[in-house]
Amino acid sequence: MKVIYTDRAHDSLADLTDFLLEEQGWSLEKFLTFRAKLLDKADNLVTTYNHYQREDYLEHLGKNHRRIIEGNVKIIYRVEKYSIYVTDFFDSRQDPEKMKG
Predict the structure, then answer these.
(1) Interval 75-92: pLDDT, tens
(2) Which CATH fold would you assign to the domain 2-92?
(3) Contacts of 28 (CB under 8 A, 6+ apart)
(4) Closest CA to 90 of 62, 55, 64, 63
(5) What is the distance between the alpha carbons of residues 84 and 22, in angstroms, rounded to a whole number?
(6) What pLDDT is attached to residue 13?
(7) Closest alpha carbon to 9 in 90, 71, 66
């Protein structure tokens, strides 16, 4: 198994960076520590991918998306054969309907 970050995941992490640093006023040090936690959790999915809940808001896609929660952020992922695709870093303070696209 390997973890692959989709383009959407990279974009949502960039948006999360802007939100936490600019709108929430986090220090760069606090943000980098939090970001490292997020990425460590995502990278550890190789051994823990079946331990987390399904993401109800994405069931309509039929790809069995799951989520890990760290603070206010959901790490959204799906498993396909021998790969784990991290598809989104979603701040749960947003309207969950935004997750559907």
Answers:
(1) 999 999 999 999 999 988
(2) YaeB-like fold (3.30.2310)
(3) 21
(4) 55
(5) 31
(6) 95
(7) 90
What the block records as the tokens of 57 is 């808001």
Which residue is it, tokens 């943000």?
Answer: 31
Domain boundaries, the chain: 2-92
The model's pLDDT over 11-61, given as tens digits with 9 standing for 90+, comes to: 999 999 999 999 999 999 999 999 999 999 999 999 998 899 999 888 888
- Residue 73, token pair as written in the block: 């952020």
Q: How far is Cα 85 from Cα 97, in angstroms, rounded to an integer? A: 21
In which residue are the tokens 């790969």 written?
83
Instruction: Decide: 71 and 58 in contact? Cβ < 8 Å.
Output: no
Amino acid, single-letter form, for residue 11: D
Question: Based on the number of CB atoms within 10 Å of its own CB, is 77 exposed (0-12), middle (13-18) or buried (19 or more)?
Answer: buried
